[in-house]
Amino acid sequence: MFNKALAEFFGTFILVFFGVGSAVLMGAHIGFHGIAIAFGLSIVAAAYGLGAISGAHLNPAVSLGFVASGRMTAADFVTYCIAQIAGGIAAAGVIYVIATGKADYAIASDGLGQNGFGAGYNGGYSMMAALVFEFVATFLFVTVILGATRADAPAGFAGLAIGLTLAGIHLVGIDVTGVSVNPARSIGPAVLAGGQAIADLWLFIAAPLAGGLVAGLFHAAGLTRNED
Question: Is 160 within 8 Å of 56 (Cβ atoms)?
Answer without folding.
Answer: no
